[in-house]
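CATEGORY: protein folding

GOAL: derive structure tokens
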Amino acid sequence: MKRDRHKEWIRLKSRLQVRKAFLIVQLGGKCRECETTENLELDHPNGKPWEAKKMSPRQRMKQYEEDNINGQLSLLCRSCNGSDGALNKEFYSAIRHGKAPF
């Protein structure tokens, strides 16, 4: 029984990795700041109104795909995303909690 769940998780994880890779290609395949192609992460430049930790991996990927269609998603490398997030942490936090950011 446990092996079956593990196999299902591996299958789901590989599907999500393929969907994420396709999304990265759609977004240009490089960091919007430094143009590196390594350690890329999906970024919401204006923050996101949803919390990833409250969603399943499948729901998160669907939300990322919808955000891409709506033009609310970009690519940053891990380094640039870390500095971007640190500068705008209070702004993003206010938006996420439904408060005015200013």
User: Anything to note?
Assistant: The longest helix spans residues 2-26. The radius of gyration is 15 Å.
